[in-house]
Amino acid sequence: MSAVMNFLVQPENLMAAAIVVGILATVITLVLPMFGGDKLNSRMKSVALEREQLRARERARMASEKGERARAVKREPGAAVKSLVDKLNLRSALADEQTTDSLVQAGYRGQSPLFMFLAARVILPIVFAILALIYFLFVHEGETSTFQLALNCAIAAGVGFYIPVLILKNRKGARQLSIRQAWPDALDLCLICVESGMSIEAAFRRVASEIGAQSLPLAEELMLTTAELSYLTERRMAYDNLTKRTGLDSVKDVVLSLTQAEKYGTPLSQALRVLSRENRDIRMNLAERKAAALGPKLTVPMMVCFLPILFCVILGPAIIGALGSQ
Q1: How many Å separate Cα 84 from the centre of its chain?
Q2: What pLDDT is stored for residue 163 in this prediction?
Q3: Mean pLDDT, residues 65-69
Q4: HEC string of the chain?
Q5: pTM, whole model, 2 decimals?
């Protein structure tokens, strides 16, 4: 045992052992990659295969949805509405590009909602005018002149003409409000997904599944954008369609940043981080603005509802006492 220890302690033996270990390490470092294979090519092939499978699934899903919509249109009694719109040429008279964009931003996609909207703007004035005529002729007590009757029917027809516009505007505003409130949170989730190594399509898909509980319209738009990114020839078209379907400046800014990041190769995570911070600040500013406007809005209800009761409570005992003393 002492001989072995003496052998190991000698400097020349230690140097020889170190040289042998270094040679073995060099040989292993050079030889092992030759037996490991090209992992990069295999990973790229797997990613390409997964992308093709994703595209095939999205195309199949879009085709099935299109077929279901076509069958639903065949089952629905929409042929009469379409023929009415075509005969009266209502599309050129009452609809423009802004009307179509408003319908899309309100969540009504396709040609059927446009036909229903145009038909409603023609049918409702007639219905309201007939109801007003029946009311003033048979229900209303008192004499009504011909001029007053015609004026009331014209007012009722105007109300019926603008009711579809008001409904569309309210629907569009509610949908945009839902998307605007959930958009900063969606950007934060996109930032986390992108920084973890996901592509923008996978990030949108993941965010759509998570954000649906907070904003269903935003989840729908992100899923549509994911589907369009998988089959459109230009990715910029999918981003532009997202901007048109939402009609929000915050979404437009994000889409512009995504397009520039893909065009010039700038870091996408940095742009998402800056935009998410800006959108959170905008959301906070809107909340503070609403809170600041609460005081003036409560002034009239307080004057009408609270102050008379307060005066009654304060002056009531004094008035009762004065009447009792008399």
Answers
A1: 33
A2: 92
A3: 62
A4: CHHHHHHHHCHHHHHHHHHHHHHHHHHHHHHHHHHHCCHHHHHHHHHHHHHHHHHHHHHHHHHHHHHHHHHHHHHCCCHHHHHHHHHHCHHHHHCCHHHHHHHHHCCCCCCHHHHHHHHHHHHHHHHHHHHHHHHHHHHCCCCCCHHHHHHHHHHHHHHHHHHHHHHHHHHHHHHHHHHHHHHHHHHHHHHHHHHCCCCHHHHHHHHHHHHCCCCHHHHHHHHHHHHHHHHCCCHHHHHHHHHHHHCCHHHHHHHHHHHHHHHHCCCHHHHHHHHHHHHHHHHHHHHHHHHHCHHHHHHHHHHHHHHHHHHHHHHHHHHHHHHHHC
A5: 0.64
Q: Are 218 and 317 in contact (CB under 8 A)?
A: no
User: To the nearest whole number, what is the mean pLDDT of the chain?
Assistant: 79
Measured CA to CA, the distance from residue 87 to residue 309 in angstroms comes to 61
**Residue 11: both structure tokens together:** 């400097």
Cβ pair 164, 117 in contact under 8 A: yes
CB crowding 211-225: b at 16 or more within 10 Å, else e: bbeebebbbbbbbbb
CA gap 25, 224 in Å, rounded: 54
Please tell me the distance from the alpha carbon of residue 107 to that of residue 113, in angstroms, as a whole number.
Answer: 10
Task: State the CB neighbour count (10 A cutoff) for residue 253.
Answer: 15
Q: pLDDT-based confidence at 166, cuts 50/70/90?
A: very high
Sorting pLDDT into bands at 50, 70 and 90, what band is 47? very low
Which residue type, as a one-letter code, is found at position 145? Answer: S
Residue with tokens 């072995």: 4
Average pLDDT over residues 214-219: 88
**Tens digits of per-residue pLDDT, 125-135?**
999 999 998 88
Query: Quick one: tokens of 15?
Result: 């140097």
Write the CA distances from 16 to 19, 31, 297, integer angstroms: 5, 23, 90
Q: How confident is the model over 91-125, as pLDDT tens digits?
A: 777 777 788 888 888 888 878 888 888 888 888 99
Q: Tell me the backbone φ, ψ of residue 158, rounded to 5 degrees.
A: -65, -40
Taken as a whole, the chain contains a residue count of 326
